[in-house]
Write a structure and sequence with these properties.
This protein has four domains: 85 residues, Arginyl tRNA synthetase N-terminal domain (Gyrase A, domain 2, 2-Layer Sandwich), CATH 3.30.1360.70; 135 residues, 3-Layer(aba) Sandwich (Rossmann fold); 112 residues, HUPs (Rossmann fold), CATH 3.40.50.620; 165 residues, Isoleucyl-tRNA Synthetase, Domain 1 (Orthogonal Bundle). The chain is globular. It is of the alpha/beta class. Bound molecules: arginine. Arginine binds next to helix 12. Belongs to the class-I aminoacyl-tRNA synthetase family. Its EC number is 6.1.1.19.
Length: 576
């Protein structure tokens, strides 16, 4: 149950009953401090101002008609007219009880929507690099959260699999084949292969001519070129899949909807935009002038959708792609997890999409942008030699570092167990470090921080889970089979229960805002609440119904942490 939403509904109804206009916002939020109650409604002041009445008096009227008997123990008016709501411990205990009995931990399913999530989107014949890492792990956490809420999610890996570069890549692939080498070996360093192709293209005129010829042939559907192109796509996908699997990212080959998929739509889109008078010819190219974007002379900015030579652009593809997602996939919502540097590109493409009426306003197109990944020195994240960091190398290093850490902590464990723990911790650390930061800020990649056992980190959260789980292991108890009832008496018990019952709010916020750091902060706070509870309220050494109740609180904590981490794509360990 979403308590905030419930209270918001209750207070909204009371506002109207007290004379406020229909639809006045109740603005119920979690309280910043316990002395302000569990929740606070801040909507009264705005309404009183509109009505020209005294806010404290109006708040009093609202409280009189507010129907929260049995839910709240107490309400009070504070400051200029805030309503502080103190929840009843008996009611909280009841809610916690039903959350524990429910495999969804009491989280209600949302009204089902078709949601397309565009994420990862690396490029063919290029290594996945750290920039794609952010899109991949943030997007995947949001996908898991949306699915948990019951939405129909379509994972769209907008692979960069089209463009004029394929001419030189095909020509070079052919050259390698002619030389009789082992192609899969030759392409194991796909980035090197790309550089080599580029060099040949720049330096060898005959090669460049073949390459240009292949571009034309590929675009007109020539079988030979298509087959070679497919080979390149396949090799890239295999390499990416290894990264996805290691990172426990839920993408597979089936989710690839690359740029090439929209190729057949592009001519039609340009024709249609011309017919609608949205695109006009300018110096031989097809251009859309957008008033809402100004160029440096203060004039409407021109966005090219077809070049003079007939070629289409990245923007043209994204226009067609958005159209497709609405028309063919019936999207209710489309989320794009792309680097903030592509913001203007997306805004322009979508502005054209809306002008052309390809998607109704009721369907949201959302750019969930993120900042750059920086090194510890605050500069773009690079290898020591100054090159781009390959994702696979980064993950290898994470495992090496985590192994050392686990070795120090648990020298007595079997090598096999240590290796398994190290791998789980390593991938979690890389993901969690990224997920826990506000998405839009640049993110500083720091091994020591992400692998620390203190603070808002993966090892800390994984260990928090293991610690609760070990209580049950030690007592030989099963979290699914506990007798007795939850009784909330101690202050720390109440704080823990309140936090546990905010899980749904966290899940829904992540789904709404596409910001997984909300879940990380929630879990970190929950772990903190559990620690304070555990210190103040002994579990196994207490007796009778107190012991049973506390065991149940611990069980719900373990399940909530595990579920929350799993929505982030992070695995837990029973021992670590
Ligand atoms: N619909 C989109 N434009 N998705 C993002 C594509 C990202 C692009 N392949 C890149 O590496 O920068």
């Amino acid at each position: 149950m979403n308590i905030q939403a419930l209270l918001n509904e209750k207070v909204s109804a009371a506002l109207v009953a007290a004379g406020a206009p229909e639809g006045s916002p109740a603005a119920v939020r979690q309280s910043a401090k316990p002395q302000f109650g569990d929740y606070q409604a801040n909507g009264v002041m705005g309404v009183a101002k509109k009505l020209g009445t005294n806010p404290r008096e109006f708040a009093q009227k609202v409280i009189e008609v507010l129907d929260i008997d049995g839910i709240a123990a107490k309400t009070e008016i504070a400051g200029p007219g805030f309503i502080n709501i103190f929840l009843s411990t008996a009611w909280l205990a009841e809610q916690a009880e039903s959350a524990l009995a429910d495999s969804r931990l009491g989280v209600e399913s949302a009204e089902k929507q078709n949601i397309i999530v565009d994420y990862s989107a690396p490029n063919v014949a290029k290594e996945m690099h750290v920039g794609h890492l952010r899109s991949t792990i943030i997007g995947d956490a949001v996908v898991r959260t949306l699915e948990f809420l019951g939405h129909n999610v379509i994972r769209a890996n907008h692979l960069g699999d089209w463009g004029t570069q394929f001419g030189m890549l095909i020509a070079n692939l052919e050259r390698h084949e002619a030389e009789g080498g082992d192609i899969s070996m030759d392409l194991s360093d796909i980035e090197g292969f790309y550089r080599e192709s580029k060099k040949l293209y720049d330096e060898d005129e005959e090669f460049a001519q073949t390459a240009r010829n292949y571009v034309v042939r590929l675009q007109s559907g020539d079988e030979y070129c298509k087959e070679k192109w497919q080979q390149l796509v396949k090799i890239t996908l295999e390499q990416n899949q290894r990264n996805y699997d290691r990172l426990n990212v839920s993408l597979t080959d089936k989710d690839v909807m690359g740029e090439s998929m929209y190729n057949d739509m592009l001519a039609g889109v340009v024709e249609d935009l011309k017919a609608k008078g949205i695109a006009v010819e300018d110096d031989g190219a097809q251009v859309v002038f957008l008033d809402e974007f100004k160029n440096k002379d203060g004039e409407a900015m021109g966005v090219i959708i077809q070049k003079r030579d007939g070629g289409y652009l990245y923007t043209t593809t994204d226009i067609a792609c958005a159209k497709y997602r609405y028309e063919q996939l019936n999207a209710d919502r489309v989320l794009y997890f792309i680097d903030s540097r592509q913001h203007q590109h997306l805004m322009q493409a979508w502005s054209i999409v809306r002008k052309a009426g390809y998607i109704p306003e009721s369907v949201s197109l959302e750019h969930h942008a993120f900042g750059m990944m920086l090194g510890k020195d605050g500069r773009p994240f690079k290898t020591r030699a100054g090159g781009t960091v390959r994702l696979a190398d980064l993950l290898d290093e994470a495992e090496i570092r985590a192994s050392k850490l686990i070795e120090e902590k648990n020298p007595e464990m079997s090598a096999e167990e240590k290796a398994q723990i190290a791998e789980t911790v390593a991938m979690a650390a890389v993901k969690y470090a990224d997920l826990s930061k506000h998405r839009t800020t640049d993110y500083i990649f720091d091994w020591d921080n992400m692998l620390a056992f203190e603070g808002n980190t993966a090892p800390y959260m994984q260990y928090a889970y293991t610690r609760v789980a070990s209580i049950f292991a030690k007592a030989g108890l099963d979290t699914d089979n506990l007798d007795g009832a939850i009784i909330v008496t101690e202050e720390k018990e109440k704080a823990l229960v309140s936090k546990l019952l905010q899980f749904e709010e966290a899940v829904q916020s992540v789904a709404r805002e596409g910001q997984p750091h909300i879940m990380c902060s929630y879990l970190f706070e929950l772990a903190g609440n559990f620690s304070s509870f555990y210190e103040a309220c002994p579990i196994l050494s207490s007796e009778g119904e107190t012991r049973q109740s506390r065991l149940k609180l611990a069980a719900l904590t373990a399940k909530t942490i595990k579920q929350g981490l799993s929505l982030l794509g992070i695995n837990t360990l029973e021992r670590m």
